[in-house]
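User: Before I run my own analysis I want an independent prediction to cross-check against. Here's the chain; please return only the structure tokens and, at the end, one sentence I can use as a sanity check.
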Amino acid sequence: MTPLDAGKSGALYGGPSFSLGNRAFRALWQLTWLSLASWTPPQAHFWRRLLLRMFGARIGNGARIYGSARVWYPPYLNVGSYSCVGPRANIYCMAMVTIGNFVTISQDAELCAGSHDLESKEFQLQARPISIGDRAWIAAGAFVGPGAQVGEGAVLGARSVAFKCIPDWEVHVGNPASFLKKRVLRC
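Assistant: Structure tokens:
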């Protein structure tokens, strides 16, 4: 799924950014999530995993996806085993979003794989994949932008913003996120 050419579709003037088929699929998905998952009790992770899988997401065993979490396009979501997508997290997967094993995406975090070309007179929509390594933590309210890579064991602090690579086992905070310290696990 790639965005339509904004010059041809007239997206800047209210035309579509995606094909009719894509928009219909997303409408069906949103209706399904709203009616069958968003209101379910927190413990209903199995049911929500099943719904996401039915719509093309790859969800690992034991993953916990909360009912208030939002997923824009399930076929572009890959969540590893025993990872958590917390309450009100928003995964705007216009391109592939890959979340490793044992990852925590905390409440109100945003993973946004789409943006616009600010030098395009048509304001062309662009999508770039996001990857979150095993055992990483995206803390409450943090924002991960298009093309960002969060390494294994890395931490993006609360309300921080990442548009670039966060190396393995480092803690980054702020806007834009910058290095705070190494993350060392106690035995």
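Sanity check: The chain has one domain: 17-180.
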